[in-house]
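Annex B. Sample input.
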Amino acid sequence: MSCRQRMRSEFRLQSFGLTHNNRHVFTRTPWLSNQLPFVLYRVAVCLYQVIAFSTILGALVDLPQLTLALIFLTTWGYILLTLHTIVSAALCFADYNNSRSLYGASDDNRLSSDVVMETGSTIQLTTRGIETAQTSVGQDSTQTLPLPWYYKLCWVLYNLAFCGGIGITILFWSLLRNDLSALSILMHAVNSVTIVIDVMVSGLPCRLLHFVYPSTFGFVYILFTVVYWAAGGRGLYDYPFIYPYIDYGGNPALAAIVAVLGVLVAVPLCHCIVFALVVARESLVRLLHRRNSSNSHSHTIAAM
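Annex B, continued. Sample output.
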């Protein structure tokens, strides 16, 4: 599928929805046939994220300080990222366990990734014995089926956590940078490293029009800041704002501009970054698949 065709397929009304023809893209990696290493990776990332979040809460053990931390966008984003890793690990483990039950424990090395993806479509490779079948099903074909609610939850969390995490990192290092402690680096830098690695090694899909989900999340947070300020809430060091750039009492014009640009411009741009990473991964996977197919074909001809 050409780049023009891919972009055309992205801007269709049904691309707002949460339907996909292959649920395995959410639980398997396109880089490996044996999915066990990917399952272990998912479990390891989940454990890391839970331990890191527990460490953060431990550092804020004082109740008033912990309550205050919950007003910041960084905390919201880190909670979403932690939830995503938990749900993803659970789905990945369940899918692997079901595959073992279906094919038998002796067929672990034959579990197909099923997620060697063309941009805008999914190529499924399934191997049983000496037979290999390859089918291509477009995202918008009549075979597209609704996902179970827990896969939809995983997809929404993925959109919220990844777009939000990258946005938090960019905003912090470009506007704030007022705290360079290890805890701050963990929440404002390592989080995006985790996100980029996850995008590149997983098979998670991304649709451009799904920016509506993180944009909705951004609007909800802005609404929360307005309500919190109107209710007389205080920020860090007892300031009458959460962030200096959204000081509704001291500089309402700047706060309004930042709020509008954040929801309508910054969030979609961050979602485009995630989309670009996914397209890059799909291109690399497709290139690797073609190279492997070419080598296999050459070996077959040489053997004849």
